[in-house]
Amino acid sequence: MAEPRVEVFDDAASLDRAAAALVGDVLRTNPAARVVPATGETPVGLYAELAARRGSGALDPTGITIVQLDEYLGLEPGDRRSLYGWMLRTVLEPLGIPDDRVVGLPTDGDVSAACVSFDRQLAADGGIDLAILGIGHNGHLGFNEPPSDATSPTRVVDLSRSTIEANANYWGRVDDVPTRAVTMGLAPLLSASTIVLLVAGERKHEIVHRTLEGPIEATVPASFLRRTSAEVTVVVDRAAWEGP
Ligand code: F6R
Q1: How far does residue 38's CA lie from ligand 1's centre (Å)?
Q2: In DSSP terms, which residues pair with 235 in a beta bridge?
Q3: H helices of the chain, where?
Q4: 3-state helix, strand, coil in the chain (%, to 5)
Q5: Fewest Cβ atoms closer than 10 Å to its Cβ: which of 89, 162, 190, 211?
Q6: 6 and 234 in contact (C-beta within 8 Å)?
Q7: Ligand 1 atom with the shortest distance to the CA of 167
Q8: What is the mean pLDDT of each run of 10 residues along the chain (244 residues)?
Q9: How far is the CA of 142 from the centre of ligand 1 (A)?
Q10: What whole-number distance in Å separates Cα of residue 107 and Cα of residue 59?
Q11: What number of H helices and E strands is found in the chain?
């Protein structure tokens, strides 16, 4: 179990290129990799860089399978504000991945029972090859809000106030942000072969250092990245690393 490798970059473009190189290494070895892509602000530049590499013929991501990291509950089918909708526009279409190559999280019917089947099927299929993650101000990975233990399965969660506030700009106002969601658990995520955690902006300064240097505990779910057999790289910009 190695410590996460930390790479610090001066600007967004060099961070995106470095992260794209890590993704490229995985896809060259395994063109049919099962990949979990975080949504949110931080990885947008990486997905654009991957799409540019696809355009120039430097990368062929069309054989991968995407496994969904998290999704809001209670939305109408086809709601553009769903995380699936975001992923479709920002990851699937630019990378040329058809939606029959997406393993979506359950959102209807008995979601808790379906989450158990989701984890079982994921393990039977060989788990995750690459997880591309971001971190919440509260240390969440996906929607594994604190406290979340390393053994937490895929499940229904209540979103924390900090997560709801951080996502308000996608919804217009805080009161419109869904309060419940389904998230891939830390257990299947931490079983990935390779994890790339992207961290940017001075507002992530405190949490990135708590993640890497503080106690490994459920109140900082991302701290479990230091206790996994995955090869973990934290790709961080100087603003987040050095702080305000
Ligand atoms: C997104 C997700 C979240 C984000 C995190 C950081 O699917 O699961 O864990 O990765 O909240 O979000 P940004 O990048 O918007 O700061």
Answers
A1: 6
A2: 7, 198
A3: 12-29, 44-55, 83-87, 93-95, 111-124, 161-166, 168-171, 186-190, 205-213, 238-242
A4: 40, 20, 40
A5: 89
A6: yes
A7: 15
A8: 93 97 98 98 98 97 97 94 96 96 97 98 98 98 98 98 94 94 98 98 98 98 98 98 96
A9: 6
A10: 32
A11: 10, 10
Asked whether 70 and 183 are in contact (CB, 8 A), the reply is: yes
Q: What does pTM read for this prediction? A: 0.98
The answer to whether the CB of 67 is under 6 A from ligand 1 is: no
Give the pLDDT of residue 145: 98
Q: Which residue has the tokens 């939606």?
A: 99
Nearest CA to ligand 1 atom 9: 142
Q: How far is the CA of 56 from the centre of ligand 1 (A)?
A: 28
* Residue 115: partners with Cβ closer than 8 Å, 6 or more residues away: 105, 106, 153, 154, 155, 156, 182
Query: Does residue 183's CB lie within 6 angstroms of at least one atom of ligand 1?
Result: no
